[in-house]
């Protein structure tokens, strides 16, 4: 019975990769002084009675390195989109031009850069916690199999596999964080 145990490491790895993908999405939303359409992803607009992402109420473009434009499709939503951006905490002051909202990206000062590196660190720590939780799930499966008669050698083998997977993914998180912090601090 114990010889049948096979931990699905590919599923565990896929789920850990999901935590890293989520981290990269969160990093993309951090403002680094350069314009990026992804920095607006967390901003939601109260449109048609529900909270809607900005990219579903207009076209987001980056015409130049320090400018993002949003061409709002419904004239009635221009004010709501502008208000959502002002209240988002991005530190951007929208400028209206008909149905086009222009977002000039100001230079980041040293203090704001340090704040953003701390936010990036928090995002990375959340990703590490997710990966550790997945590690715990894998270890729990191994413990259950041990209780059902798995040999100690098999238990050590699978625990080693899960730990190696965890270490590799945490290393990826650390590398992503280091890269993002360098990008943020770059003047």
TrEMBL record:
It comes from the Bacteria. Signal peptide: none annotated. Its main location: cytoplasm. GO terms for cellular component: cytosol. Residues 23-185 form the Ribosome recycling factor domain. One of its GO terms (biological process) is cytoplasmic translational termination. Coiled coil: none annotated. The keyword Disulfide bond does not apply. One of its GO terms (molecular function) is ribosomal large subunit binding. It is found in: Cytoplasm. Pfam families: RRF (PF01765). Belongs to the RRF family. HAMAP family: RRF (MF_00040). NCBIfam families: frr (TIGR00496). This is Ribosome-recycling factor.
